[in-house]
């Protein structure tokens, strides 16, 4: 079992929202516990756990909840088609894209990513671990134990799923709500705590604000506080990779072969000038090898 900082352990033991099983799950190292559990007990799929009627009720609940929370009680629908639309041409709210139904079954054959159960478990574990870690660290900030915190609630699937589609050598530029990428890539909870508590064991030697993670080993560039600065930097890295890959084509062996850059940003960050400059250079100079992941939770108010 790995060692966790005493403050986190205390929070873990006293957190009323954690069941004993959940606590145990958090205390297990990410990689080994996933494989051990997989070997011991088969996962119960949502399909076997829910009836048709329950699935319909669950769909209805999710649509109503989303409409009430974010759309001023307007009705929203699910869609299985990915489509590009200009928001001002829509009279109705944007439909919610999904590729599985409430029972976990794929709605269209081509939506199935065909990854092994091991990958599904790894994704799930990163998402749930992140969720619990967020609750503890958010409370820690409110208790004055750490100076600052940003949670990842609601964006777990988006960034952990995209991380699973990348190669470990692909370079990531994050905003600040993509901690699941680091968990998925293997950064330990202990290392996360060192960063948030800004101590000497932190990879950044305690010189950054909390949640400004970075790991050279895991190809994750350290988070910047000023919004959107990561975007032109990501374009620069993608251009460098493109040049390296070009050299490779001429027969020069380089370890950058086939690497891509993935850059995350929020909808609020997208209104910064840096974002527009970055998109422009990406479209005209880089053209390929750069993945943009824009995450909108309808919270930005500018
Ligand atoms: C250049 C700059 N302006 C303002 C801020 C303050 N700030 C921090 S987070 C944030 C909201 C960003 O919204 P969004 O990109 O949608 O991300 P979200 O937090 O909603 O996930 C703002 C305005 C900043 N960090 N940098």
Characterization of this structure:
By secondary structure, the protein is an alpha/beta fold. The chain has 2 domains: 55-111, no CATH class; 117-295, Rossmann fold (3-Layer(aba) Sandwich). It is 45% helix and 7% strand. It contains 11 helices and 6 strands. The protein has helices at 6-14, 20-27, 30-40, 46-49, 52-70, 117-142, 156-165, 179-185, 189-197, 230-249, 273-286, and strands at 78-79, 96-97, 171-173, 220-221, 261-266, 290-295. A 4-stranded parallel beta sheet has the order 4-3-5-6, with helices on both faces. It has a two-stranded parallel sheet with strand order 1-2. Helix 3 (30-40) crosses helix 6, helix 7 (156-165) crosses helix 8 (179-185) and helix 10 runs parallel beside helix 11 (273-286). The longest helix is centred in the middle third of the chain and has 26 residues, at 117-142. The chain is globular, with a radius of gyration of 21 Å. 23% of the residues are buried. Residues 29-43 have low confidence and may be disordered. Thiamine diphosphate binds at residues 177, 225-227, 266-269, 272, 297, 299-300.
């Amino acid at each position: 079992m790995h060692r966790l900082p005493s403050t986190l352990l205390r929070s873990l033991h006293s957190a009323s929202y954690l069941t004993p099983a959940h606590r145990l799950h958090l205390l297990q190292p990410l990689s080994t516990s996933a494989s051990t559990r997989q070997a011991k007990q088969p996962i119960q799929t949502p399909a076997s756990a829910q009836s048709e009627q329950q699935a319909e009720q669950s769909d209805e609940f999710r649509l109503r909840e989303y409409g009430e929370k974010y759309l001023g009680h307007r009705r929203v629908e699910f869609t299985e088609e990915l489509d590009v639309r200009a928001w001002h041409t829509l009279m109705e709210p944007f439909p919610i894209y999904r590729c599985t139904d409430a029972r976990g079954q794929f709605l269209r054959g081509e939506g199935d990513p065909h990854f092994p159960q091991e990958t599904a478990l790894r994704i799930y574990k990163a998402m749930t671990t992140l969720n619990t870690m967020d609750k503890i660290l958010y409370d820690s900030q409110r208790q004055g134990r750490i100076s600052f915190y940003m949670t990842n609630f609601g964006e777990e699937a988006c960034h952990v799923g995209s991380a699973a589609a990348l190669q470990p050598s692909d370079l990531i530029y994050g905003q600040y709500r993509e901690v699941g990428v680091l968990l998925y890539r293997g950064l330990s909870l202990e290392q996360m705590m060192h960063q948030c508590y800004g101590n000497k064991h932190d990879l950044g030697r305690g010189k950054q604000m909390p949640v400004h993670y970075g790991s050279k080993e895991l190809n994750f560039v350290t988070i910047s506080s000023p919004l959107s600065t990561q975007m032109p930097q990501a374009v620069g890295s993608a251009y460098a990779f493109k040049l390296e890959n070009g050299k490779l084509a001429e027969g020069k062996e380089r370890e950058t072969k086939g690497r891509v850059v993935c850059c995350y940003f929020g909808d609020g960050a997208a209104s910064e000038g840096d974002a527009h400059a970055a998109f422009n250079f990406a479209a005209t100079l880089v053209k390929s090898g750069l993945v943009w992941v824009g995450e909108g939770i309808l919270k930005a108010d500018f």
